[in-house]
Design goal:
The protein has twelve helices and eight strands. The protein is an alpha/beta fold. Strands 1-2-3-4-5-6-7-8 form an eight-stranded parallel beta barrel, surrounded by four helices. The site of phosphoenolpyruvate has 14 residues, from strand 8. It catalyses: D-glyceraldehyde 3-phosphate = dihydroxyacetone phosphate.
Length: about 260
């Protein structure tokens, strides 16, 4: 049986100046022993402006560094964008792709998310690919259809990479129902587990048994220290992607401790 390391990933969104990010890393030093690397990967996905130098500070407290977004092109005339190589320069090991806020407010398509996933893997970063249904889609009973569509194109592109022998490296899929993000309303653990089972079966069907066993699936949507356990106890849920509750040191540490 494959043992998948749990992942507790903080998404700071557009919060924290450089000074505030430094203060967070500094305060984490007090909790260094609680952020043990053995059973859990603890991760902070910080805004671009805070990435430089933050990775070194987080490493000292066993926390990894990630970004929240990335462009798929290697380089070029893409004002305001950032490439995989640039994120790597800054020490990012992970990158969130296709967060619902990017899909909703910046019109990121399933296809763009799929391309970015391949580019991140090529650059040896771990992509965290976000999928999830809106409230109206959920009410229409379309959760599984939406998640299958969003993931379908990602998996097709990964299958092509695999056929070329170029699929190398781990990836993470975050199931984040849009209605649960930042709303204080979270999915029931059973509903999240049902979608995670679907995701794992789609990965297995497209990329094979090994990939299906190894892919880490995390839940996101109003996760807090007092509810994270109910999710990570589910057999197909390997951690959480957390926005609001990752912004304070005490609650970030408590999230890691609960896993
Ligand atoms: C997120 O930003 O991905 C998220 C899940 O936010 P929150 O935990 O605040 O709902």
């Amino acid at each position: 049986m494959t043992i998948r390391k749990k992942l507790v990933a903080g998404n700071w969104k557009m919060y924290k100046t450089l000074h505030e990010a430094d203060a967070f890393a500094q305060e984490l030093v007090e909790y260094r022993d609680m952020l043990s690397p053995s059973s859990v990967d603890a991760l902070i996905c910080a805004p671009f402006t805070a990435l430089c130098g933050l990775g070194e500070k987080l490493k000292q407290v066993h926390v990894k560094l990630g970004a929240q977004h990335m462009h798929e092109a290697e380089q070029g005339a893409w004002t305001g964008e950032i490439s995989a190589a640039m994120l790597q320069d800054l020490g990012c090991e992970y990158v969130i792709l296709g967060h619902s806020e990017r899909r909703q407010f910046f019109a990121e398509s399933d296809e763009a998310v799929a391309k970015k996933t391949c580019v991140a893997l090529d650059a040896s970063m771990v992509p965290i690919v976000c999928v999830g249904e809106s409230l109206s889609e959920r009410e229409a009973g379309a959760t599984q259809t939406v998640v299958s569509r969003q993931l379908g194109i990602v998996l097709e592109m990964l299958q092509l990479q695999k056929a070329k022998g170029a699929l190398d490296g781990a990836f993470v899929i975050a199931y984040e129902p849009v209605w649960a993000i930042g709303s204080g309303k979270s999915s029931s653990a059973q509903d999240a587990q049902d979608v995670a089972t679907l995701i794992r079966s789609l990965v297995t069907a497209t990329l094979g048994q090994r990939a299906g066993e190894q892919v880490r699936i995390v839940y996101g949507g109003s996760v807090k220290p007092d509810n994270i356990q109910t999710y990570v106890q589910q057999p197909d849920i390997d951690g959480a992607l957390i926005g609001g509750a990752s912004l304070q040191v005490a609650s970030f540490v408590a999230l890691v401790e609960q896993v």
